[in-house]
Amino acid sequence: MGWLQHLRSGRKTSLKPAFDGPELAIGNALHIDVHSHIVPGVDDGCSRIEESLALIERLVEMGYKGAVATPHIHSDIYPNNRHTLVPAFEQLKTTTAQRWPEFSLQLAAEYFLDEHFTDCIAAGDLLHFHAVDDIGQPVKCVLFEFGFHEPPINHEQVIFDLQMAGYTGVLAHAERYPYWHSKPGEVQALADRGIWITVNAASLAGAYGPEMYRVAQALLENGTAKMICSDAHGMRHMDSLKAISKSPVVHRWIDAGDVLSRSVKA
Length: 266
Known about the structure:
Blueprint: H1 3-8, H2 26-30, E1 32-36, H3 49-61, E2 66-69, E3 72-73, H4 82-99, E4 104-107, E5 110-112, H5 115-123, E6 129-132, E7 138-145, H6 155-164, E8 167-171, H7 184-192, E9 196-200, H8 201-204, H9 210-221, E10 225-229, H10 235-244, H11 248-256
Parallel strand pairs: 1-2, 2-4, 3-5, 5-7, 7-8, 8-9, 9-10
Antiparallel strand pairs: 6-7
C-alpha cells in the first residue's frame, strides 16, 4: 500500500511518538548511517574533529558498522567540492581508524537540487556512496535535498538526468518538505521512479513537532521510506537515534526487513 492509499484508507497515524518498546541496538539493525555532517569545519555540522569523534563514538556504542559523511554542497551557502572536503575527511578517517578500526567511513555529499547540481551531473562529478540494490546489483548512490519553503522546479528532469548518468538518487529527510504534506503522492511518485526515500531519526523522535512525526511515521508504516538517518549535526541527533531504539513504529519497520542501509558498502 502506497502512502497516498495508506492515508485514504482511514488508518490513523499518531501525532506523538511512543518509546515504550524494548530497547533495540539500533546500529545493529541499520548497519550504516548514510546521512551525517561529521566532517569537521566544512558546513553547519561539526566544527572541530573532537566533535566529530564524539558523534562517531556514539554510533559505535549503538552498534553501527560505519557512516557515510555527507557535507552540504549548496552553491549559495556551502560551495563545497572535492578540494574543500577530501582533506578534512581524510584526517577524520585516519583518526577514526586509529580508535575504531572496524568502523568504516565513506565520503559523499548532500546536494541541494539547484543549477550547480545539474552541472555536477553533466560533468560526471558527484560524490557518492556504494550500495547494492534489491536484485543484488551494485549501485552508486547520491544524496540530495530540496528546499524547505517551496517545491523544487524541474526536479523530475534533474532526477531523470541523474539516473541516466548511472546514479541512484537518495532523497534526504522526505518528511521535512511541508508543501508535500498534503500531497503524499509526490513522495510516492519519487519512490516509484526508483528514488530511495529516507527519514530522519529526529523527526521520528518528535524533535521537529507533531506534523513532521506524523509524516515520517506514515512513510515508515507504508514502506515508502527505506532508510532512517541521523542527519547528525551534533549530539542531539545521537540522542534521537537512542530514543527511537525504543519506538514500536521503528521496530515494526525494521522487522519488515526492507532496510536499504544494510546494503551500503561498509
